[in-house]
Amino acid sequence: MIEAESITKKYGPLTAVENLNLTVKPGEVVGLLGPNGAGKTTTMRILTGYMPPTSGSVLVCGIDLLKHPKAAKKKIGYLPETPPLYPELTVRETLRFAAELHRLPRPAAKIDEMMEKTGIVDVCDRLVGNISKGYRQRVGIAQAMLHDPDVLILDEPTIGLDPIQILEIRNLIRCLKGNQAIIFSSHILQEVSAICDRVVII
Question: Residue 75 belongs to what H/E stretch?
Fold first, then answer.
């Protein structure tokens, strides 16, 4: 699903990521583990096409991300560290907007399915700005999964959550395991060991 080869990212004299190789297979949950500042977020931004590497290559389902970014990005669902949500929209409106961006053929049915899967039905008509951070993370995951991506990339989805919310997000990610490849970043060993099939240390 994901094949990254010799990924390097430099910001002037600073090297954020150096010569990283990573392969993630279908159905596999891989944890990207490292301390703050190790380059996890930079790596995820490169893998999603949010920023280009200084050198190296990324294949998403066999598609070269640098040469064919539009086709490759259709295969990816991405939840950044801060979910890209509009506080003035309701949860349902947020997902409807995302569905329109993806041009989904049957958006209402897909939205209902994702809300059920991520456990946000009970807050679907509330404003995003008025729900808890745990629920916002769930909405972000639902938004990332709406178009049935082959690869799901989650950047520290439990950061800033309370212990109960952390357990809820962990259980949600476990339930999402299937045919898609999932990459999950964290700086907490316990976190990745509780969720992931394999750990990559940066």
Answer: none
pLDDT tier, 74 (very low <50, low <70, confident <90, very high otherwise): very high
Under 8 Å CB-to-CB from 171, ≥6 apart: which residues? none
Asked whether the beta carbons of 119 and 138 are under 8 A apart, the reply is yes
* Rounded Cα–Cα distance for residues 81 and 137 (Å): 9
Q: Does the pTM of the predicted model rise above 0.85?
A: yes
Distance CA 121, CA 118 (A): 8
| 45: DSSP letter | H
Residue type, 62: G
Of 16, 22, 17, 20, whose CA–CA distance to 6 is shortest?
20
Residue 157's CB is within 10 A of a number of other CB atoms, namely 25
Predicted confidence band of residue 194 (pLDDT cuts 50, 70, 90): confident
Backbone φ and ψ for 105, nearest 5 degrees, come out as -70, -35
**Read out DSSP for 61-73?**
TTEETTTSHHHHH
User: Is residue 172 over pLDDT 90?
Assistant: no
Residues contacting 70, CB < 8 A, separation 6+: none
Q: Six-digit token pair at 42?
A: 């930079």
- Cα distance between residue 29 and residue 8, in whole Å: 23
8 Å CB contact between 46 and 52: yes
